[in-house]
Write a structure and sequence with these properties.
The chain is of the alpha+beta class and 404 residues long. It has helices spanning 13-42, 51-56, 58-64, 66-70, 74-97, 213-216, 218-229, 241-275, 286-289, 310-323, 325-339, 383-401, and strands at 2-10, 114-117, 124-125, 136-139, 143-148, 156-165, 168-176, 189-194, 198-202, 207-209, 278-282, 296-297, 305-306, 342-346, 371-373, 380-382.
Length: 404
């Protein structure tokens, strides 16, 4: 299996400058390759430009401008071109499926934060000084950079990436390692119902509170964004020191919320995997759930619109994003695979409207957001707990139907 590791780097002042130059030059390569594809399309080229054609031009580009492109790893530049090729492949895939296409855009220097090295030893070397007690990673054109390795890397390192987050620099590794031994069986099964009031409720009736990290920092974020709005919009190179500090403060608050969500998701997934052999959850279509409310034109008044609950929908969308369901479910599936646990997603329709006692399904069974009261048999319970029970039952049925 492949596992990723992320470590904080401690570059010197000189190395920080060179790392910024590396990102800048790879960003220029990305934008230049994108411009070439756009020009070919606009001039009616019968054959679209692919990665292979642009990769063969790298040798000439490096020879023409050795100061900007010749000093960096050839393989890392190929990885940047592959990154653009994947963006176009995703664009055409969305076009065919009828989704919003999202044509690949040019990247500003502040929006290009990662350089990939496809193979350890080709333009980079992890733990380049093995006899030194301090771990270092070597990059072509940069040198040996000190790394704060807080845990051992198990397995053979396959790829290495440089990532910038604000003023901090990280090295991201992917290592190939054998499948770990599965955790001991507990004999426990559980179903979970994701929500807004509670982050999740399991089939045993346990409620986990929603941490609402973004809401807790909303006042600070609003103040930081208000301070940033006082500066006129201008290019990054023309910003004043105060403007740059305002930008960094907003970005730092967003990164803090992201780290808090990740930490909470990892801890919750770890607890579920450790306690249960089988976990069933709702197959949530988060993108559809968080769509903006559609405008309703008023047929009697041209140019006017009817109330569509946009304000309430905006608040709901913000709460859905703050909960971080997608991140949690992704981590849950990854941890389950490593631990030998089974996780199944089931159809969420009517899970909170079906009575777990008599099986009667009706909209009236859920008079409020929290209360469940069956109009047929009179069973009363918390609506989220009922949903979790029904999710577990549907998951067990699906598991038994597909024993493989």
């Amino acid at each position: 299996m492949i596992r990723a590791y992320k470590f904080l780097m401690r570059p010197t002042v000189g190395q920080t400058i060179v790392l910024r130059e590396m990102l800048r030059d790879h960003c220029g390569l990305y934008n230049g390759a994108l411009q070439e594809r756009r020009d070919a399309y606009r001039h009616g080229s019968k054959t679209s430009i692919k990665y292979g054609q642009q990769s063969t031009q790298l040798k000439d580009i490096r020879a023409f401008d050795p100061e900007r492109h010749g000093r960096w790893s050839f393989s890392s530049q190929q990885a940047t071109l592959r990154r653009l090729d994947k963006a176009f492949a995703a664009f055409f895939r969305r076009m065919k499926s009828g989704d919003t296409p999202g044509y690949p855009r040019f990247r500003g220097q502040n929006w290009f934060d990662t350089v990939d090295f496809p193979k350890d030893g080709d333009g980079c070397r992890w733990d380049s000084t093995p006899h030194d007690p301090v771990t270092r990673v070597r990059f072509q054109g940069v040198g040996h950079v000190r790394v704060n390795q807080h845990r051992p890397v198990v397995g053979k390192v396959k790829t290495v990436s440089v990532k910038r987050e604000g003023r901090k620099w990280f090295v991201v590794l992917t290592a190939e390692q054998p499948q770990p031994e599965p955790l001991p069986a507990t004999g426990s099964v559980v179903g979970i119902d994701m929500g807004i009031a509670s982050f999740l409720t399991d089939s045993n009736g346990v409620h986990v509170a929603n941490p609402r990290y973004a809401r807790k920092l909303a006042a600070k974020l609003e103040a930081a964004q208000r301070a940033l709005s006082r500066f006129p919009r201008r290019k990054a190179k023309n910003r004043t020191a105060n403007h740059r500090r305002a930008v960094e403060k907003v970005a730092a608050l967003h990164r803090k919320v992201r780290r808090q969500r990740l930490d909470h998701a990892h801890k919750m997934a770890h607890d579920l995997i450790a306690e249960h052999d089988f976990i069933a959850h709702e197959d949530l279509k988060i993108r559809n759930m968080s769509k903006t409310a559609e405008a309703k034109p008023d047929p009697d008044k041209p140019g006017a619109f009817l109330p569509n609950g946009a304000a309430a929908k905006t608040g709901l969308n913000r709460s859905i994003s703050d909960a971080g369901w997608g991140v949690f479910l992704t981590i849950l599936h990854a941890k389950a695979e490593s631990a030998g646990r089974e996780v199944i997603a089931v159809d969420p329709r009517n899970t909170s409207r079906q009575c777990p006692e008599c099986g009667h399904t009706a909209k009236e069974n859920r008079p409020t957001q929290e209360k469940f009261h069956c109009v047929s048999c009179g069973h009363t319970a918390h609506a989220d707990a009922v949903g979790a029970i029904n999710v577990l039952r549907a998951g067990l049925v699906r598991r038994d139907a597909n024993p493989a």
